[in-house]
Amino acid sequence: RDDMSVLQASGGLGFSSIEPLLDKPDVTLRELMLDEDFLQECKSNNKRLLDFVTKPENLDTVVSQVTDVVIPPEAAGPAPPETAASGSTADAAAPATPTTGATTNVTTTNVATTTANAASPAAADTPASRVMSALLSCELLCCDCPVVTAALYRQQTLLEKLFRFVTQEEPPAPIVTCYCAKILHAVFPKKIADTVSFLKKTPNAVPCLVRRLELPGVEDLLMRLVSCEELPEGRGILSWLCAMNTLPELVNKLGSGSTDEMKEAAAHALYELVSFARTSAAADALIAALQNDNFASLLIHTLFGSDSASGDAGNDVTLTHGLSPATSLVRSEANAAYEATKGQDELPSFVREVLRCLPAIKARLISTEKVRDGSWLSATPAQAVL
Prior knowledge:
It contains 23 helices and no strands. The protein is an all-alpha fold. Helix 17 packs parallel to helix 20 (313-337). The radius of gyration is 25 Å and the shape is elongated. It starts with a helix and ends with a helix.
């Protein structure tokens, strides 16, 4: 190839070390991925490189390096830089676990500094090399490269493999959870129609997501799907999520059978959904679901019903976390309704349910030391109701 083609393939920045590798008849995917120019060349849409990477067998290897990575706890490898994600449930102790925020990225320079040891033949199957392979594969699948994303969606089995971290019975390893969640968080909005089609064909997709909500990145993934409603090609995804009983599933996770971590994650997800309904112009389906009488009754019963008043410490955790979305819901409904309504029957469903259960709510609050002072009611429309 002439010098001009090499410059074009490398973004015009100079000679690329990928080109001589691609000229080798027996070049392997591992050789290419460990080259310091690999990620940058993929992002620069090097056609020869992308043609090689997106071969079905090679793309399957890329995905498998993420989904099948097994790392001993004592051999945790290099972790990419972290940025704050919208969810607060990330496990900080997990090895090499990136958040799924859209701005999280690993530069080519950062990756190059961590591949030196993994590049040697002796390190072909060490914990460090497996972590590095998973990291590079994750960054490849997350990068802004339409060719890779399109190839991933052409092989539905690969999407199923990535989504398996929420559908399988056994909880996955933290590193697998974080990388898979990050990849799906990145690719789902790029192919919204195909994503919805894939999720609809996946049995129990929404219950499985909710079941793993306390794992790092899963709440972010759920909210990423919700936010797609604001894009023209994403209209209808909220209606589908509501039809799949996402809200009741989340409320049920506040119940006594859940861990404290799950209760916190479910409460935060509910709070984020209420906030989205209050601020987004594309949330009609979600607003309707939040105003449903059955949902209001379920949430109030979960927080203040007879089961929650048993005095168990776990029920106090339910109330402590659950008050946040409940208060936000009262605030949003009350602000929208008080000027336009006159009688109690005309109030929004959740406010009516609060009024109906007022004696039980007061008794539950008094019996719970953590919220005995009633401070959760201050400066909210609920104070006027109560």
